[in-house]
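Weekly structure sync, notes
Attendees: PL (lead), two postdocs, one rotation student
Agenda item 3: pending single-chain targets
PL asked that the sequence for the first pending target be pasted directly into the notes so everyone works from the same version. It is reproduced below exactly as submitted, 430 residues in total.
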Amino acid sequence: MKTTINQVSKYVDQEVTIGVWLANKRSSGKIAFLQLRDGTGFMQGVVVKADVTEETFTHAKSLTQETSMYITGKIVEDARSPFGYEMQVKSIEVIDEAKDYPITPKEHGTEFLMDHRHLWLRSKKQHAIMKIRNQIIQATYQFFAQEGFTKIDPPILTGSAAEGTTELFHTKYFEEEAYLSQSGQLYMEAAAMALGKVFSFGPTFRAEKSKTRRHLIEFWMIEPEMAFTTHDESLEIQENYVQFLVESVLSHCQLELNTLERSLERLEKIKAPFPRITYDKAIELLKEKGYTDIEWGEDLGAPHETAIAESFDKPVFITHYPTNIKAFYMKPDPNRDNVVLCADLIAPEGYGEIIGGSSRIDDLELLEQRYKEHNLSDEAYNWYLELRKYGSVPHAGFGLGLERTVAWICGVDHVRETIPFPRLLNRLYP
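Predicted structure, written out during the meeting:
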């Protein structure tokens, strides 16, 4: 019977064949212990000299790291293993012998591992991170489907900047100028006017020359937009979504979380509702914590977000930022026009902002005023104005950064480990 590692629980005390690679091995006299992987998981194969042919045992002891093979044996339960099962090996059929595999079971520098990212992905820790990332993606589709959202795909090539910034990748689009998208939000607003509640899930690009552990040049965003939705209603959707993601990982990725030595207790605390503080309160809190140089009207940096998060054991919303540090499309607070109806969701444990969102301006005259203030081209953005011209409604939306969310849930230090092939300021290889 041919199967995979993640299915072996169905074949206890039965003989099966699995296509695997050798992750590592050790031998103890008359027993060889093979650490096997097949893409679905990791499992130990035990080769006992007395139970196999002399050729098979010699073969087992000479196997090199990352050699591919078909391995046959009986599946047995093993309470000592985190996985819970192992194989009592009967025979080995080598497919391809690997020689001089560069990532050996020892410490390697980050740059070396990044140069070999195509191979580093095979390691147990990186495998666990990718499996959790996959679970978060599955949970995202499940959440928005059950909440009545329609998936919409905005364009990646655009003729203008979503937020009027200059941190864009420029390209030629035949005879026109074009840019790689830094957000699908404006297009999602158009889709929300047609379909009510929509979300996108795709790559975004920021030509930001940043080297922090929270930044990538290419990353993935989930961007919902909702018609007939208030600021507070949007915050409720956001916290329910984040709670759903964490619960999904806790339900389906216990083995991977254990591999990463992630604190389950901290993740189990992630229950809505999340605390909310205004930007005003955040500035007061920072000053109390010794950040005396921060003044009202300045944007919050990573150290500030971390300091604020330390006061909470679950994500915290910072709301009502000053108008002049936020995007042109954000709706002013009707009771105070120097702040906007927006919120950043700050993850605990120093992982920073994972969601940014706001109510969008739905008044045509006010949006036209913002165009002038931000020197936006009527030609490039006329279609966006028309959304307010033909049946405008109150609406809100947000964007969640996948890689930062994966980093937080996994408890890994740098977002470069949360995407299969990271694009960084100094890295376009492999």
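Discussion points:
- The chain has a mean pLDDT of 96.
- The two ends are 37 Å apart (CA to CA).
Action: rotation student to compare against the earlier draft before next sync.
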